[in-house]
Amino acid sequence: MSLLMFNTIFNLSNVQNALVNSPTERIKMLSLDVVVKVKAKNFVQELMYGETKKCHQAGFYISDRNVRLAQKDTKLCYCEATIFIKQYVNNPEVVLIYMTNDYTNHVPGNTSEIRTLPLPSEVIKIIEDQLKGGSTCRNTRISVLKQIEEWGVGIRKPNYKDIYNRMRKMNNLLYKFHPDENKSLDIWMCEKLPSQNYCIFTGDLSAYSNNAQHFAFGFQSLSQMMLTRISQLFCLDATYNISARNIEILYLLVTHYPDTGKGFPVTYMITNDHH
Predict the structure, then answer these.
(1) Per the domain annotation, does 9 fall within a domain?
(2) What are the C-alpha distances in Å from 217 to residues 55, 106, 248?
(3) Is the pLDDT of residue 254 over 80?
């Protein structure tokens, strides 16, 4: 087997010049038996690890059984493509990348397969930054799609479920500030909310309850306080089972919002005292 080797040492910003057009429009691919040199420093920084994988393509398995567990979106297509990545001791500054077996039963970069790719780490970071700033799942998705619009056709775009699942994974980071639940709540009430100019108030239940485990507290943002001052009519709404213990109750003081004409919460109150 004879290999064609480029004299140029590429980095990941210009390595596309060593690639050829794929049968799929606007997708580049590595030619067979062509060795591409990449600077080891750039390669290590931008590609954190390497693995040997078999090609999968988009598809669905249709079972003849009445009941079958959900199948994943990719299926083994027995592609024989083999890509080698080598770094020699006598030349550690350069990484060699080449493919010895061509793709079979599979065309890489097909648009139907983009949905099966993982989200790039850069996209995940943008999503997490948006969520940390208080953005909703819907607004986060719209913002992310606008930011990555020019990244190319080979990037999987996040859908609503991607954003929602990322938010679920971030719950501990966003809302749990200590392993102990009570201490976490104290940090949230005494540090996090006041830092955002929330008004915090607690209820004294000792006058009619001897249970030291009972609590009652509430909070208002500055905008809620301003709306409370100018409102004349209020409605009290209660939501039960707001935690895994099913004992806490969330009370909302709701009023009419003048700009939208709809109900708007102006106070949040939480308690585990049902009396």
Answers:
(1) yes
(2) 55, 60, 11
(3) yes
